[in-house]
Design goal:
single chain, alpha+beta, six-stranded mixed beta sheet, 21% strand
Length: 165
């Protein structure tokens, strides 16, 4: 059996400051940060907010919602996406997404979506047939800019992996 070594590169930009974002990105970034104040995180103390920027300029937010019966809570990324689909069927295209996180007694810091969120995020991008740019908080105050959600989920499960019915 021959082994083939392959490498997959993830393209992103690491920005130094909010001033490096476009005005639309700044709006989305700030909305995600603002959303953290509405999260329900009494068990982890880790408050996460997500914001979706729609093509019509609307910003839709989601927050993490914990529950004492782990793992029945839900992440901010999925509450934003599921909430948008439930509240606005046929909504305008999502043209941007941002995530922010902070501890109850601290400042904002790094936060990367979990695997379940990455899968759901990619499914929404696939459904709309257009890339959704993503902003994530990185280490040392950096803002990570991805041109597409698919960049953070290079190996994913899709409808193509399901048996045909």
């Amino acid at each position: 059996m021959a082994r083939i070594s392959r490498q997959h590169l993830i393209n992103f930009e690491a920005l130094d400051a909010v001033a490096d974002l476009t005005p639309a990105e700044q709006t989305t970034w700030q909305a995600a940060r603002d959303a953290t104040s509405h999260s329900y995180a009494p068990y982890s103390g880790f408050h996460v907010g997500a914001a979706l920027l729609l093509a019509d300029g609307t910003v839709f937010k989601g927050t993490n919602q914990e529950n004492a019966a782990y793992p029945s809570g839900l992440c901010a990324e999925r509450t934003a996406l599921f909430g948008l689909a439930a509240a606005q069927p046929g909504h305008a295209l999502i043209v941007g997404m941002a995530v922010a996180a902070r501890p109850s007694d601290g400042d904002f810091g790094p936060a990367l979506p979990c695997g379940a969120c990455r899968q759901v995020m990619l499914e929404y991008e696939t459904r709309q047939g257009q890339a959704i740019p993503l902003l994530l908080p990185g280490r040392d105050g950096k803002i990570l800019r991805f041109s597409s959600l698919s960049a953070i989920m290079p190996f994913n499960f899709s409808a193509d992996d399901l048996p045909s019915i």
